[in-house]
Amino acid sequence: MGLSAITGNLATDFNHTEFYDNNDCLIIQRTYIIFMVILLLVGGTGNLLSIFVAVSMRKLNNSTLICLGYLATADSIVLITLATYFLIFALTNGKINAIASSHCYIMFPLLLSILISHLTLASISFLRFIHTWFPLKVKSWCTTSKIKGMLIAIFIVAFCLNLVHLFAYEVQKTDGVDSCVVRKQFQIFYFKFWVYMVFMATLLLPWVCIVLFSSLTVMKITHRAWLSKTRALGQTATEKAALKTTGMLLVVTMWFVLSLGIVLAYVYLSDAPQDNNTFDKYMLCDTRAAIGWVIFTSNYAVNFFLYILVSKEYRQFLYKALRQIC
């Protein structure tokens, strides 16, 4: 999706029709479609299973299951929105008029869900930090009601930060073609500054928190092992779980940073056009941008499978949930 819809840069003096109508572009688009379909099917199934486990095991009042169910809900919205948008765009080459103007309608729920997803991952990292640094306080600090309150707070913060996207855009018709543009009253410095700050906070701040809390968790476990001098690092079940979850979160962070770097490098270092419709067409004909967006979208499709891989307890929860319907 064109980042120009976020930043308000909607110049339309760029024409690359001859570029995205050639055979190389068609090959890239078809490959892109295949990967997006795979992500949509596999990731969607994983997110639905995660929600199913959280609902089925709700009587256990497990904080991890609650967070993962919440995370899967946000990831599903992001995955469906991004994958569906680009699939339709690639299949039609952007020729459907409604696709060009759809930025106006999907920007708010998309950015809201992205921020909720990132903040929820940060909260999981924070919970592991609490379990490692303050094990005696876990029962009083990490109650079900407090976890649910934290998740509600995440939604409220994300909603307030992105509220401006509900009112900032409008559909404009030019020569019979619809496009999403920023309303005139919002084309001021303070609005653009706010949008940039929210956008960067959405993408970067939660990952900074994840790295911080994960580093502190590993530091504490390492310090305990060094003090005891009689046991290996991560010998207890709690420490093993903390190390596995921390490692998973760090892998997800690096994967996200890689995809974001590719996409931003394409946006700011290439000669890509900056209006939404032309930008997205050109982007789907550029190998670097296509790879970047596939990796970026995959961030919202892999969390369930990573948790299945690293957590024996979560695999048991999944097995019990599936047995209820068999």
* Rg over CA atoms: 22 Å
Unreliable stretches: 2-20, 273-277
Tell me what the CATH architecture is: Up-down Bundle
Shape from CA axes?
globular
Percentage beta strand: under 5%
**Order of SSEs:** HHHHHHHHEEHHHHHHH
In CATH, the homologous superfamily goes by the name Rhodopsin 7-helix transmembrane proteins
How confident overall, as mean pLDDT?
76
Structural class of the helices, strands and pairings? mainly alpha
For the secondary structure, the number of strands is: 2
Helix count equals: 15
Q: Which strands sit side by side, in order, in the main sheet?
A: 1-2
**Main sheet makeup:** 2 strands, antiparallel
Question: Gap between N and C termini, in Å?
Answer: 41 Å
Could you estimate the helical fraction of the residues in percent?
A: over 70%
What would you say about this model in short?
It contains 15 helices and two strands. The chain is mainly α and 326 residues long.
Task: Explain how this protein is built.
The chain has 326 residues and is mainly alpha-helical. The protein has one domain: Up-down Bundle (Rhopdopsin 7-helix transmembrane proteins). The chain has helices at 4-7, 17-20, 23-56, 63-92, 97-101, 103-133, 138-141, 144-162, 189-203, 205-228, 237-269, 276-283, 287-298, 303-310, 312-323; strands at residues 169-174, 177-182. The protein has a two-stranded antiparallel sheet with strand order 1-2. Strand 1 and strand 2 form a beta hairpin. The protein is globular and about 70 Å long.
